[in-house]
Write a structure and sequence with these properties.
- Keywords: Antioxidant, Disulfide bond, Oxidoreductase, Peroxidase, Redox-active center.
- This is Peroxiredoxin.
- 24% of the residues lie in helices and 22% in strands.
- Strand 1 and strand 2 form a beta hairpin.
- Helix 1 runs parallel beside helix 4.
Length: 184
């Protein structure tokens, strides 16, 4: 396993700063966003429940992470989170929901990652910050790049019905999702 597939010990735990308190009940904007595998998606118009996990950026084997990455609360863990959703995708689908990943990385970057990690679901590129800004999702800066903080939400009928923020550790996120889907 590469170092991106495991989480180091003693990562700082992110605290709930209230940056996502406004999301539950919020309607999704009418936006078409590019996805891996071709095409685009409009999250406001999907017929099934939908899980969107937003993450800062996945690492690339052989390329160093930004300086101080492990010291930023909640930054580390994008690959383990994506792999965990991959491993639980069939269970989430059986509970009546589809999964999408979302980051600000461009589509080409995401396509390589999705293929390398064998993701069975699309990943959305919000490189232009259209959805992030429309929903007022929290962001941070690292290495001169603006990135989204890790947040997961469930959409039903075009509205956000549940929000997981902050997500920590990242690979536990599907457990929260499945518990939420079982409650509804």
């Amino acid at each position: 396993m590469s170092s991106y597939e495991t989480l180091p010990d003693n990562l700082p735990t992110p605290e709930d700063d209230g940056a996502c308190a406004h999301l539950e009940g919020m309607p999704l904007p009418d936006l078409d966003l590019p996805t891996t595998g071709g095409g685009s998606v409009n999250l406001s118009k999907l017929p099934r429940k939908t899980v969107v996990y937003c993450y800062p950026m996945t690492g690339v084997p052989g390329v160093a992470l930004p300086d101080g990455w492990d010291e930023i609360p909640g930054a580390r863990g994008c690959t383990p989170q994506s792999c965990s959703f991959r491993d639980h995708n069939a269970e989430i689908n059986a509970l009546g929901a589809d999964v999408f990943g979302l980051s600000t990385q461009d589509k080409a970057y995401q396509e390589e990652m999705a293929e390398r990690l064998h993701l069975p679901f699309p990943v959305i590129s919000d490189a232009g910050f259209a959805l992030i800004e429309a929903l007022n999702l929290p962001t941070f800066e690292a290495d001169g790049k603006r990135l989204t903080k890790r947040v997961t939400f469930i959409i039903d009928g075009g509205n956000i019905t549940a929000v997981h923020y902050p997500v920590f550790p990242s690979h536990s996120d599907p457990d929260w999702v499945m518990a939420q889907l079982k409650e509804t």
